[in-house]
Amino acid sequence: MQKPISLQKTYSQAFLFSSFYNSKLVYAQRRKKMLSKLDAPCVFAGVQVEPGCDEAFASTWTRFVQDPAFLFLTGVNQAGCYLLLDPISKSEILFVPYKDSYKEFWMGKKLGYYKNHKEAGGREVAKVTGFKRVEPADKLWEIVGELCNKKLPCDNQGKAYMYGFFYEKFKGDHNDRFSLSFRRFLNKKNVGLRSAASFHYSLRLPLDKGRVLEALAAQKVTDKAFRSLLSNFSSFENERDVALFLNYQMQRGGDGDLAFPTIAAGGENACCLHYVKNDEPLVKGKLILLDFGIRIGTLHSDISRTIPVSGKFNPLQKLLYQIVLDAGEEYKKWVKPGVTLNEVGMVPWNFIVDQLETRLVQKFGGTYKLMYDCRPHGVSHFIGEHIHEGDPGSRSLDVVLEPGMLISCEPGLYGDFCANISGKRYKERIGIRIEDDLLITASGYENISRHIPKTVEEIELLMTND
């Protein structure tokens, strides 16, 4: 394997990159690459409405999050926008809503097209985004209609087609709703519609150098926050204390929001995979499962650790924790370019069951009852502009791994366990998850989370030296 990346060096490089790189050039290069993969015009729709449009006061509490496909190609993080890429004329058009000064009075400045101002028009938007052509959003269908009247490529049956960004297997999101409207419009022109998602993901899943630096910087911040949490853990009384401390330490060290809502699940709560209640008292002698991460630039960290509330694992907890830890190492033996996540997805789960039989049942006469059949969740997902990157309909599990892709490695164990160890009986419901982030390299992978404490010895040492 190649020499490990220095996180200290790349941390400073990432902030330097984020602060001084030419963002307009980066997005333009991405669009150019996307254009090279297309043989017909393609429309990308951003999220169409602000949060809280249908519910009173909801916009006060809800942050707007742009569709990652649209954001990846434009950098525009506001509602009601579209992108048209036409490989035939080599043109790019950004569509934005009209300027609304009254709305801006309430919600702040937005990119917008000046209505009834021919000279101003989209000049301000073009200057900010780097697009040479900007149009008002309500001209989208007019311009698409003009393209339908031009020569388009045809399928085997001689029917012309265009592209839109939507998922074939995932229904109900804004991309799906847009594709239905797009398809109805094209049907009137006797033009078909194809999904450009596979082309887009071939560009988006492998991270470029700048996004790798951002991912590494996120690891550095997450590592520092977790170490601080361990050294201060004895002062916490409940899950909320833990989550708030961890969130604060991550956000004060980064330049963005959390990667996702932090999970701080004590005791049996760890057996709820997406537990976010985070308000129960901590119980001495129990474990607490933490799932956390920060976004820097457009990339994220995604880390899980399970630690003892009292600072020491009891023998049963330690045995089960080590099984999960070893399952991750077993899985990593199979991670390399050329394989898919589907092909290696059962490796850690088979390993865990085998080790439960060997280490728990045969050695200590223990028993266990898992809360699932075969596997509780996927062991890996892609990480990128979204924390769970890839096609939501398939999780991109059949995408072949290649250098530059970033994936999680998160085996877990959830159920009821019992054993007699050193003359003492231990019995409890336990949830354990241990997660690292792996950057695929030419020869295999690099664990960019390797500095974040996770062995029993590291965790206990840091928790007892507070």
Protein architecture, described:
The radius of gyration is 25 Å and the shape is elongated. With 466 residues, it is of the alpha+beta class. The protein has 15 helices and 17 strands. The longest helix has 23 residues, at 209-231.
Count of strand segments:
17
* Spatial order of strands in the largest sheet: 4-3-2-1-5-6
Tally of separate helices: 15
Gyration radius, rounded: 25 Å
Measured by DSSP, the beta-strand proportion falls in 15-25%
**Spans where pLDDT lies below 50 across 5 or more residues:** none
Mean pLDDT, as a whole number? 93
By secondary-structure content and strand pairing, the structural class works out as: alpha+beta
Largest sheet: 6 strands, mixed
Give the helix proportion (percent range).
25-40%
Short description:
The protein has 466 residues and is α+β, with helices and mostly antiparallel strands. It has 15 helices and 17 strands.
SSE map:
Elements: H1 7-20, H2 23-37, E1 42-45, H3 58-61, H4 68-74, E2 82-86, E3 91-96, H5 101-107, H6 123-129, E4 133-136, H7 140-148, E5 160-164, H8 174-188, E6 191-195, H9 197-204, H10 209-231, H11 239-253, E7 263-266, E8 287-292, E9 295-296, E10 299-300, E11 303-308, H12 315-332, H13 341-344, H14 347-364, E12 367-370, E13 406-409, E14 412-421, E15 424-433, E16 436-440, E17 445-447, H15 456-464
Helix pairs in contact: 1-10, 10-11, 12-14
